[in-house]
Design a protein that fits this description.
The chain has about 300 residues and is an all-alpha fold. The protein has helices at about 1-30, 40-55, 60-90, 95-115, 155-175, 175-185, 190-195, 200-225, 230-250, 255-275, 280-295, and strands spanning about 145, 150.
């Protein structure tokens, strides 16, 4: 029973990372009606950049992590100006934006994968396709005991940080001029432009915030799970992120937060009852069941009532 409680506690910690990752997905979808499938590659880059600065260049983690987050924000600029804005200018159908972000994700994964010694990107990554972890002692790994449970300090910090960020993000969206502009663009971009809102600036800001969240969740994943490779975005969180926003409701920030914790707990319960072999299929199963039972998700709204 105690082992079960420990696993559920671990699921809560993991759910914080899922929720942060999915909130970034949701921000872009809520404003653009586009799934940014480069989001998982930015998640990977955040983890890789933090690892590389710490392990390869001796940078303290508390400096490397903010640099990785800023790097994620820069990738948001790249996504906007390379993948999305040129297509919007040409009134391209939404599927083209989806394909262009998939293409960027594949390019980023391939670049990191080829980062072996002697290649131009080896400054960033020298491990090819290998999985690595942050050096021991990079962050404090102390733990304390509570009611018979082992509670690592780093995971508590991740949980608290994630909750604070999600509360702040909700306040920004709901109570600030920037949030109101974002909601206006999500509701009707043409009307927002007529009212004097700089739609392109709102979209760019949204992508920067979304990508910074992806990079942060990648850094936290690297700390919590100690599994960093060019494929962690694709293999570990991409499908789970999609499942989370479907569970919670497409375009709902609150739904993404609830969905992240819900999916992590479902995975843990499955692990305890059925073993590890079926855990990988749970995200897809949850996505499928929710689409059948309630296509709009737990907190789903109508097509234009987003963010």
């Amino acid at each position: 029973m105690r082992y079960d409680a420990q696993q559920i506690l671990n699921g809560v910690f993991l759910g914080s990372i899922y929720a942060l990752f999915a909130v970034g997905y949701t921000l872009v979808f809520g404003v653009l009606d586009v799934l940014n499938l480069a989001h998982s590659a930015v998640f990977m880059l955040g983890a890789v950049l933090a690892y590389s600065l710490v392990a390869l260049h001796g940078t303290p983690f508390w400096i490397a992590a903010p640099i990785a987050i800023v790097g994620g924000g820069v990738m948001g600029v790249v996504i906007e100006f390379v993948c999305l804005r040129p297509l919007r200018r040409r009134d391209a159908p939404p599927i083209t934006a989806l394909i262009s972000t998939i293409g960027l994700a594949l390019v980023l994964v391939a670049l990191v994968e080829q980062g072996r010694p002697g290649r131009f990107i080896s400054w960033l990554w020298r491990d090819g396709a290998n999985s690595v972890s942050l050096p021991k002692g990079t962050v404090p790994d102390r733990a304390f005991h509570l009611a018979g449970l082992i509670v690592p300090e780093t995971k508590v910090a991740i949980l608290v940080l994630s909750l604070i960020l999600m509360v702040v993000l909700g306040a920004v969206i709901g109570r600030t001029n920037a949030g109101r502009a974002m909601r206006a663009v999500a509701e009707n971009p043409t009307a927002a432009r007529i009212l004097g809102i700089n739609v392109d600036r709102v979209i760019l800001t949204t992508l920067i915030a979304s990508s910074a969240l992806a990079a942060l969740s990648g850094v936290l994943y690297g700390v919590a799970i100690s599994d960093i490779s060019p494929y962690i975005g694709r293999d570990q969180v991409e499908l789970r992120g999609l499942a989370v926003i479907v569970l919670g409701g497409m375009g709902s920030v609150t739904g993404s937060i609830v969905g992240g914790y819900l999916l992590a707990l479902i995975e843990v319960i499955t692990l305890l009852t059925l073993g590890t072999n079926v855990r990988a299929a749970i995200a897809f199963a949850a996505l499928f069941v929710m689409l059948v039972i309630r296509p709009r998700g737990l907190f789903g709204t109508t097509a234009r009532e987003r963010v």
